[in-house]
Amino acid sequence: MDNLKLWHKFLETIKPTVGAAPFRTFFAQTMLQSIERNKIIISTPHAFAKETLNQKHLPLIEQTFTDLLGQKVQVEVVVKKLEGPPAKEEDFFQPIQTAVTTLNPKYTLENFVVGPSNNVAFAAAQAVVQNPGTSYNPLFLYGGTGVGKTHLMLGIGNALLSKKGHMKIIYCSSEKFMNDYVTAIQEHKMGDFRKRYRMTDILLIDDVQFFSGREGFQEEFFHTFNELQTKNSQMIITSDRPPNEIAKIEDRLRSRFQGGLMIDIQPPDFDTRVAILRAKCLEQGNALPEESLKLIASSLNSNIRELEGKLIQIIQALKTKSLPPDPENVAGFLSNFSNKPLPKDPKQVLSVVCSYFDITLKELTGPGRQKGVVMPRHVAMFILSEELNLTVEKIGQILGGRDHTTIMHGRDKMKKLINTDREIQRILIEVKQKMIE
Ligand code: ADP
Ligand code: MG
User: Fold this and answer.
1) What is the CATH number that goes with domain 97-264?
2) Whose CA is nearest to atom 5 of ligand 1?
3) pTM of the entire predicted model
4) Candidates 3.40.50.10810, 1.10.8.60, 1.10.10.10, 1.10.150.170; correct CATH number of 270-339?
5) Is 25's pLDDT higher than 70?
6) Most Cβ neighbours (<10 Å): which of 64, 208, 248, 405?
7) What is the model's pLDDT at position 205?
8) 86 burial via Cβ count (<10 Å: 0-12, 13-18, 19+)
């Protein structure tokens, strides 16, 4: 049997055991590189596929070869680029279903409150809107949770869209990028994936710290980055830490991140916090006396998302009790809400969520899809992601081995609801409150 025949026989044999979807994802572009005595080398163009093949499928691969050849073999998987056009060219040119990008119009530069903690970042944002692609490319914004990175990034996007409506713009988290990449491979639509990400005029990539340790994806993103930079397409990148503190990221990508303008956004000072609270009240048609706003602003000092949560909670509580929003009443509520930071223990999140919703841990992490457990699960996903900053993969593990796409979906759903649904806002606040009691 020559190598090619052997290879086809191998793929045919292994496919039913591996299953159709994983087969497509991990074996579709593999090649038999060489056979020397009992040593077989197979290649894949994707580092992530190499990882999975080694970790999950190696024993099966070796056994299948052993059976076919009638002798014990050892298999090594290597990463090797495909040479020339891919075997099945049509696979690469099927149109991929892509949603038209819509940016949340809620976040603009106009409603971004500027203070000493973010004025440098804001000035850079304005410069980018003036001259996209030329002045600062990439603009790399970093800072802690809830300091306004995503808001500022979307503000730039919205400003560019209103300036030049026909611009192609993509906003996505680094997780979505990785997810789209996997889907493109599974569906043989890499060509479309690349077209989509490399032909855009503006690319907004949120939370690139999640690229950490994901080599294959870093490589794809590196090429996307280079192509966009060559074409002067503006990139804006956010991260919860500066490039030199992102672990397990390739040096060449790190140096790309550092090559534009890096700016940190600091936690807002007291006056800025008051100004932000004032602006949020106005947006929602609520008026609180200045003294009340100051009281709330002094109760929390870093995460603006939490500050907003607290504002909503207080307004809600005042309304429920039909109390006027004067400082005494606000102070009364504030003293009930403690300021301790949330504990960073995932187990505790799960146990609080379970006791709050009166369900068992088994139900929370199990496969059940009844409303009574799905919603608590989403709450857990959201808190684990937003408060404990765990990756979606990690959260998937914690919640009974769920796929990371499921986690993304649940978390994003909560993110939307938290802006619109008072009941959800209340639940989240109460659950977090219980965590610090
Ligand atoms: P990050 O991406 O840094 O975690 P976000 O951009 O999601 O934070 O901001 C969290 C919340 O705080 C959002 O509702 C956002 O509108 C609000 N926010 C943050 N900074 C500002 C600001 N300077 N002015 C107005 N709102 C802000
Ligand atoms: Mg963000």
Assistant:
1) 3.40.50.300
2) 148
3) 0.66
4) 1.10.8.60
5) no
6) 208
7) 97
8) middle
Task: Collect all residues with Cβ–Cβ distance below 8 Å to 76 and sequence separation of at least 6.
Answer: 39, 40, 41, 42
Question: Which CATH number describes the domain made up of 3-79?
Answer: 3.30.300.180
Q: Are 234 and 203 in contact (CB under 8 A)?
A: yes
Residue 140 reports pLDDT greater than 90: yes
Q: Which residues line ligand 1 (CB under 6 A)?
A: 107, 112-113, 118, 143, 145-151, 276, 279, 304-305, 308
Give domain limits for the chain. 3-79, 97-264, 270-339, 346-436
Q: What separation in angstroms does the CA of 350 have from each of 164, 361, 375, 411, 428?
A: 46, 7, 13, 15, 13
Closest ligand 1 atom, CA of 107? 16
Model confidence pLDDT, tens digit, residues 341-380: 778 899 999 999 999 888 899 999 999 998 889 989 999 9
**Ion ligand 2: residues, Cβ under 5 Å:** 149-150
Torsions phi, psi of 101, nearest 5? -70, 130
pLDDT in tens, 60-92: 999 999 998 888 999 999 988 665 433 332 333
Q: pLDDT tens for residues 204-238?
A: 999 999 999 999 999 999 999 999 999 999 999 99
Q: Coil, helix or strand for 1?
A: coil
Residue 284 has a CB neighbour count (10 Å cut-off) of 12
For residue 328, give the amino acid letter.
E
Residue 296: which of 334, 329, 269 has the closest Cα? 334
Enter the tokens of residue 274: 């008051």
State which ligand 1 atom lies nearest to the alpha carbon of 265: 3
Q: Alpha carbon of 240 to those of 21, 125, 208, 246: distances in Å? A: 34, 18, 8, 9
CATH number belonging to the domain at 346-436, selected among 1.10.10.10, 3.40.50.1820, 1.10.1750.10, 1.10.472.20: 1.10.1750.10
For residues 407 and 396, is the Cβ–Cβ distance under 8 A?
yes
Burial 90-120 (b: 16+ CB within 10 A, else e): eebeeebeeeebebeeebbbeebbebebbee
Q: Distance from the CA of 148 to the center of ligand 1, in angstroms? A: 3
Q: What order do you get walking across the sheet with 31-36 strand by strand?
A: 31-36, 39-44, 74-79
Q: How far is CA 313 from CA 69, 316, 334, 360, 401, in A?
A: 69, 5, 10, 28, 34
Tell me, what amino acid is at 72? K
Residue 184 scores a pLDDT above 90: yes
